[in-house]
DNA sequence: AACGTCACAGCAAGCGCTTTCTATGTACGG
DNA sequence: CCGTACATAGAAAGCGCTTGCTGTGACGTT
């Protein structure tokens, strides 16, 4: 029913081996023969059987990209950049590879299962994006899996994720700590002394690092942090809205709210507005990531720009072996403070 | 080197056939035997070889999701919803399937190549999202490919894409035309008579349908459209910014700007603001899609909400054969007008 | 003129799994 | 006590492709 290599071979009056070689182009085939084969392929509308090919050659052209939340532009932008470099069809890469993005939804189990699925498919490479989970058993399981993937010849690259030593993975890590610190120091420099902080989910490395940066800035300026000033939530707008209301309830005298990311900051802005505060006149708001929309909200968001697309592209290139891995297998990607309208000095 | 079924069989002292049956669970195996096998699997850390399995069984667990731009939340949201239903790991579906999203970047060639790649992998299902390209040769090529996929047993679902008769694909189509019309009628109802329209790229069905709706509304109210009032661009913010400047240059007396989607509308708002106009006092702005950020910009965007997540989920279920296809293989998904602050009656 | 050298093409042995068909052991009815 | 039925396990034949090795003419060399 379906056309196979043998059918093409028969039609072109050559052996299956020759057809295979024409298709893979890694062995000399006379021009006239090649032409005949290609013609037969065309006439029969032949499509290579991927699994069979992968089995015989013991390699596949699948490249996995793991993201926490594909509906979040943070990941979408990285995934897009990675995929662009992986080649996929039309990319600059020669061989056509199937770059696939897998949505873990932030769940450790799904992450692990996706890795197994990719291992099963003998993926050529895997790129993991975004922060990792800090739960020890899960981290151990993930690391073991990454180690195994790497051992099996799959190139493993972490993009925006802390290094995982001993796994053989190459890491492009975001300097969340440094960015967080710089941002808060900017606020402190403007005179803010009572700063609320809306952190992300507890167990994520990104959450911890950004928060550490924030606290380092406070400490560096001798500001004693009030435990009421920190609220944890999800990395989304809704969470930012609620957390802000909570912060305001706990301490109505806050002059600034620092959010774990831009989406959260958006929620914070909405909450402040709904509670009758003006931004930045009454309360300053800062975000993190500098997603595209951040410049469009009014007032535009002061935030820390992360070069998502650049980092993704680089990760993609490394995954494809088209760029050398950074020395030590790790490179730190810095953020850049974007000063905009949502932050001003405190009133009075 | 790598552990194979045979190794597991040897360790468990059974035949490879038995191991396969334990793993697939579709044939009676004595409990004691099963246990022994499972233990061996665990001890050897065995991972099934996907390609080999797919080859032998002539089926695969890959499901492809094609999107135009993964960095755009419009697609991210749909992809996320689809993937959620496909199951993937942790999903409600029983068998673990690898739901993979492929980023075509809106390029017809890439779309086609991805389809071939998926055909190669003998994908279990394919979901295509977003508008289609109207270029005739390309449409023919795509349709032929879809037809072939369907014939080969791959379930093909279109989500937010016009029906492709004769291809055997099931379509969940957005009522872009109706939504566009309703939106513009709302503006007309408020008294607007000079409305600029920022359309998307010429060759996309979505672009055409939304524009047709807009024009139908104008026609229905006897408003003769000035050709200067329509500008085409990309579906992004930047394009909206520039197109708005262009519209203003052509006719500074416009009282409203209707954008092809929310991102474009955002750009329009920025351009209006930068040129000293207030929204909606001087000029009203409307978008389309109702992406999450649309409620957060100031003023909040009047737009047409498309139930992206719901449609995606449904498409996913249909792709998995977990929900029946709509009668006739097509269902129209309507948008809902969201009236918010960015639109008001014209001044004076 | 005899003989390496090439440039190609074909043979055939798998790759690791699934599945049909067959064999074995056990339980049971007559 | 034997024949039949049932439950379970194994043997073996592929699935469609890749690739190392083996021809086989056509050339160029001495």
Task: Describe the protein in words.
Two copies of one chain form a homodimer. The first copy, chain A, is an alpha/beta fold. Chain A has helices at residues 5-12, 16-24, 31-44, 50-57, 73-86, 108-120, 136-151, 176-189, 205-220, 237-250, 262-274, 308-319, and strands at 62-67, 98-103, 125-129, 155-159, 170-174, 195-199, 230-232, 256-259, 284-286, 303-305, 330-333, 336-338. In chain A, the strands form three sheets. Chain A has a six-stranded parallel sheet, with helices on both faces. A four-stranded parallel sheet of chain A has the order 7-6-8-9, with helices on both faces. In chain A, helix 5 links the parallel strand 1 and strand 2 (98-103). In chain A, helix 1 (5-12) crosses helix 3 (31-44), helix 5 packs parallel to helix 12 and helix 8 runs parallel beside helix 9 (205-220). The longest helix of chain A has 16 residues, at 136-151. At the A-B interface, helix 4, helix 5, strand 2, helix 6 and helix 11 of A face helix 4, helix 5, strand 2, helix 6 and helix 11 of B. Chain A binds a DNA duplex (30 and 30 nucleotides) through residues 4-6, 14-18, 20-21, 24, 27-30, 33, 48-49, 51-58.
Describe the main β-sheet of chain A briefly.
6 strands, parallel
Mass-distribution shape of chain A: elongated
Rg from alpha-carbon coordinates of chain A: 25 Å
Relative strand content of chain A? 5-15%
Which structural category do the helix and sheet elements of chain A fall into?
alpha/beta
Chain pair with largest interface? A-B, 63 and 63 residues
């Amino acid at each position: 029913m379906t056309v196979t290599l043998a059918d093409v071979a028969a039609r072109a009056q050559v052996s299956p081996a020759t057809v295979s070689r024409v298709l893979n182009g890694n062995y000399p085939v006379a021009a006239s023969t090649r032409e005949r084969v290609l013609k037969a392929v065309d006439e029969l509308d032949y499509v290579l059987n991927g699994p069979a090919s992968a089995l015989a050659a013991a390699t596949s052209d699948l490249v996995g990209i793991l993201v926490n939340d594909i509906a979040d532009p943070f990941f979408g932008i990285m995934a897009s950049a990675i995929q662009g470099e992986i080649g996929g069809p039309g990319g600059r890469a020669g061989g056509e590879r199937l770059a696939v993005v897998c949505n873990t939804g932030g769940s450790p189990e799904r992450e692990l299962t996706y890795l197994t699925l990719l291992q099963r498919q003998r993926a050529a490479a895997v790129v993991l994006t975004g922060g990792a989970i800090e739960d020890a058993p899960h981290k151990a399981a993930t690391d073991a899996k990454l180690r195994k993937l790497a051992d099996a010849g799959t190139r493993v690259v972490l993009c925006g994720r802390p290094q995982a030593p001993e796994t053989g993975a190459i890491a492009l890590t975001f300097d969340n700590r440094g960015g967080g610190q710089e941002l808060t120091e900017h606020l402190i420099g403007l005179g803010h002394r009572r700063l609320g902080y809306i952190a992300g989910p507890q167990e994520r490395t990104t959450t911890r690092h950004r928060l550490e940066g924030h606290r380092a800035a406070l400490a560096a300026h001798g500001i004693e942090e009030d435990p009421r000033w920190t609220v944890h939530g999800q990395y989304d707008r809704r969470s930012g809205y609620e957390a802000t209301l909570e912060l305001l309830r706990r301490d109505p005298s806050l002059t600034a709210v620092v959010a774990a990311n831009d989406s959260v900051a958006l929620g914070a802005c909405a909450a402040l507005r709904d509670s009758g505060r003006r931004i930045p006149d009454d309360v300053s708001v800062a975000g993190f990531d500098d997603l595209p929309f951040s410049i469009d909200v009014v007032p535009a968001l002061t935030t820390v720009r992360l070069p998502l697309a650049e980092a993704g592209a680089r990760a993609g290139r490394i995954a494809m072996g088209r760029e050398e891995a950074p020395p030590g297998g790790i490179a730190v990607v810095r953020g850049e403070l974007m000063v905009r309208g949502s932050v001003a000095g405190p009133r009075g």
